Amino acid sequence: MSAKVQNIALRFPDPADSRLSGRSGAAEEVSPAAQSQRVLSPVTAKVGLRDICLSYRTHSGQDLLALDRINLQLRAGEFVCIVGPSGCGKSTLLHLIAGLHQQTSGEVLVDGKPVKGPGTDRIMIFQEHGLFPWLTVGQNVEFGMKMKGISGAEREEKTRHYLRLVHLAKFEKSYIHQLSGGMRQRVAIARALATEPDVLLMDEPFAALDAQTRDLLHDELERIWYETGCTIIFVTHNVREAVRLGDRVILLTFRPGRVKSELTVGLPRPRHLEDPLVARAAGQILDELRDEINRSLEVEYAEGIKPKVRPGGEP
Amino acid sequence: MKRAVRNILFYAALFGLWMILAKLKVWPPYLFPTPWGVWEELCGGFKDLTYWIAIVVSMKRVLIGYLISVALGMLLGLGISSNQFLEETIGGLLVSLQSLPSICWWPLALLWFGLSQNAILFVVIMGSLLSVTLAMEDGRKQMPKIFSQAGRNLGATGFKLFWYVLLPASLPFIVSGLKQGWAFAWRSLITAEMLYMSMGLGQILMMGRDFSNMSAVVAVMLVIIAIGYIVDGVVFKGMERHLQNKWGLTPAT
User: Would you say domain A15-31+39-121+200-303 falls under CATH 3.40.50.1390?
Assistant: First the structure.
C-alpha cells in the first residue's frame, strides 16, 4: 500500500467485525488487531485496485492527473466508504470499477479477474438515481434481469421481492416522477439489487436528500447490506455519513487523487449520525481532510469554475 | 374556452370574407373559386370515392417513406452523435443538404427507379430523412448521459442499449424533429405526386388544373391541409402528451 495507513484508535468490542470476517470466509479472515496492517493480495480480494492512474486532457490541452497510483483491497461483504474533497476523483474511481470508464494504467480486479467493461456483478447507484422515466417502477427494477434474458415469471417474482425489500411494493405501477426523492433512491437500490450484484457502487446516493430521509435510508441500506451480504463501496463527501455506514473509511487527497489514509471504524452497529462517537471519529477525519478541502477550494476560487474531473468521451 | 371562441370567430371571419368576395364577383370563378363551388367539389369527390382512393394511396406512400426515413434517420443520427469523425464529415454534409428541396432529386429518382412508386418514395425519404437524422443527433446530445451509463451498467449493450435505453430516452428530445420530418415527407409526397400519373392527392390536384377547375384545386388543397392537421393534432400531440405524462414534464403550452 503506497499511502500511509493509519489506524485511528477507535477500537471497541466490535460485533460487526466478527460478523464480517465470519461471512467473508476463512481465506480472507483477518484478526481485528492485524486489520490495519492487513496485506490482502489484490488477487484474493473481492475488489482489488492495483496502481490505478487516470489522466486526461483538459480543454486547454494540458494533461491532468486525476488519480495517482490508487491501491485498495476490499474483502467480500465489506462496507467501504471513500471520502475526499470535491474534485478528488472519488466518483471517477467508482466509474472505473463499474467499467464505465477506462483507467490510464493499473488494474481493477474483481475476484482476481481484471475488469474489461460494465458487468452486472458491479452495479452503480448514482446521485441522480439514473432511473428510466419512461418505465414504471416495476419495469425499472426488472430492467437488468430483462437484459440478462431472465424469464418473465421469474422477473415478476424477483421484482416484487426487491420492491418489498425497499418497502415500495405498492408503487410497482407508478412512474418515477410520481415518487419523492427518497423513494426514487430506494427504487434505484432495488433495481441494482435485482441484478444480484456482488458489489454495489454508490456515488453520493443520498447527497440530494433531506436529512430525515437520509437517516431512514442509512438504516435501510444497512439492513439490506446485512440481508444480501454484498460488498459496498460508498462515495460521499459527508464524513459523518461515511463513519455512520462504513467498516472502513478511505480518505483521498485533492488532485491528483491519492489514498491519504484509511480508518477502520470499530464502532458497534447500528450507529447513529448523532452518536458522539461517530461525531468524534468524523472530526478526526475532517482534521485529516482539512488541508485537502482548503486546497480544493483555493483551486476552485482561482479557476473561477469547477473543473470536470470525469473524463469526457463517453460513447 | 376563450381561445376556442377566438379561433371560431377568426375562421368565421375568414370564411365570411371569402363568401363576400365570391358574391361580389370581383374576379370570375375560374380565377377565384367560390365557397359553394369548392363545397360541391368536395362532396362530389368523396361521394364518387375519388378522394378516398387518393387519400389511401397517398397515405400509404407517405407512411412507408416516413417509416423508412425514421428508421434510417435514427441510426444515422445516433452514429453521427457518437462518433466525432462521422459528425465532422457526414454531419456537415447533412446540414448543407438541408437547403436542398427534396424534389430536386426527382430527375435522378426517375432515372434510377423509373416512373414508379419507388421514385416517389425516394423523394419522400430524401425529404424527411435529414430532419429526422439531425433531430436524433441533437436528441442524443441533449439526453442526460446518466441514462446510457445506467443502461450499460445494467447489462444493456449494442442493439439492446439502443432499443431499450437510447431510443426511449431520446424520444422527448426528438419528437419535434419527428414532427418536422413528417411535415417534410408529406410536402415532398404531394409535390412528387403532382409530377406524374400517380393516383394520389397530388395527381387529382393537377387534374383540377388540367380541366381549369380551380374549385377542384382548392378542394384538394383543403383535403391536404386537413390530413396534415389531423396527423399533427392526433398522432404527434397524442405522442407528446403521452411522453409528458410518463416523464412528468409540464406541457410546453
Answer: no
Q: pTM for the whole thing?
A: 0.72
Residue B101: helix, strand or coil by DSSP?
coil
Residue B163 lies in a domain: yes
User: Assign residue B31 a region: left if phi > 0, alpha if psi is -120 to 50, beta otherwise?
Assistant: alpha
Domain membership flag for residue B3: no
CA angle B8, B243, B159 (to 5 degrees): 140
pLDDT digit string (tens) for A29-44? 333 434 444 456 655 7
Instruction: Please tell me the distance in Å from A217's CA to the nearest CA on chain B.
Output: 21
List, in sequence order, the alpha helices (H) in A117-257: 137-148, 152-165, 181-194, 211-228, 239-245
Whether B165 maps to a domain, the answer reads yes
Residue numbers of A between 31 and 70 with CB closer than 8 Å to B: none
CB contact under 8 A, A130 and B156: no
- B88 Cα to chain A: minimum distance (Å): 15
Among B154, B162, B164, B167, pick the best mutation site for testing chain A contact (most A Cβ within 10 A): B154
* CATH code where residue B170 lies: 1.10.3720.10
ipTM score of complex: 0.72
Domain that residue B126 falls in: 35-247
Q: Total domain count for chain B? A: 1
Q: What is the pLDDT of residues A114-172, one digit of tens each?
A: 888 888 888 888 888 889 998 889 999 999 888 888 888 888 888 888 888 888 888 88
